[in-house]
Amino acid sequence: MQLFGLTEPLWRLGAFLSVFVAMAVLELLHPRLERPELQKALKAQRWFTNLSILVLSSLSLRLIFPAAATGAALWAEARGYGLLPLLDIPPVLSGVIAFVTLDFAIWLEHVAFHKVPLFWRMHRVHHADPGVDLTTALRFHPLEIVVSMAWKIAIIVALGAPAVAVLLFEIVLNAAAMFNHANLRLPPRLDRALRPLIVTPDMHRIHHSTERLESDSNYGFNLAIWDRLFSTYTDRPGRGDDAIETGLTAYGRSAPTKLLWSLLLPFRRS
């Protein structure tokens, strides 16, 4: 698939690198949390592990679903499959409906990965990260990435989502995840202005709290409306934005920064 002369992989890679570099610079300039125990060597180990998991997850995804989400949309589009083509909805409106529906589907999937024990075994790799920053947004076990893509493809085909809308959704979702996982201190006024529409770093960091009631809230990755609609929204952490503890206390601070340990975590007992 091409958009304005560029192929889908180039769009995705360009957007990823641009957002990654921007967030990395902003984290250095305006960090929210200063954690000495997660600095220097341990942070370097975290980044190595998280980026390695990203590479392994991407390879697994390409092996099992070579065409991924956009390819599924093109396949369904060529055959006229899905609810949106059946209803003959105008292309622009179809794109908006597909984008919002996919965002809700990802929110619902996220809730399921916390509530269903089998899924939680995979998802706890993401939450075990003791420090939350933009690389945490990339730390999803290959098994979780494959299950997530299967769910996404099912929604795309059932909807008959336009391929352009799917590509834009994938780019925005990836960028939004890096933004809201960033160890970034936003000006309070900006945070308040953004929260009604999109998930901010202070809002999503609550979801990574060591406190169970806090981690059982703020499931959104992109649009901020779903947690408010379903009463899973928490405005502020109990310890405050500058003192919040993140990660899974059962695993400590060091072990989750190791690559092999993280890859084997879904196969360990809870």
Gist?
With 270 residues, the protein is an all-alpha fold.
Structural summary, described in words:
- It holds the Pfam family FA_hydroxylase.
- InterPro entries: Fatty_acid_hydroxylase, Sterol_desaturase/TMEM195.
- This protein is mainly alpha-helical and 270 residues long.
- Helix 3 packs antiparallel against helix 8.
- It is globular and about 55 Å long.
- The mean pLDDT is 93.
- It has one domain.
- The protein has a two-stranded antiparallel sheet.
- The protein has 13 helices and 2 strands.
- The longest helix has 25 residues.
> What about the largest sheet?
2 strands, antiparallel
Shape: globular
Portion in beta strands: under 5%
Low-pLDDT ranges: none
Report strand order across the widest sheet.
1-2
Describe the secondary-structure layout.
Blueprint: E1 2-3, E2 6-7, H1 8-29, H2 41-64, H3 68-79, H4 83-87, H5 91-115, H6 117-127, H7 142-159, H8 163-181, H9 188-194, H10 201-205, H11 212-215, H12 225-229, H13 259-264
Antiparallel strand pairs: 1-2
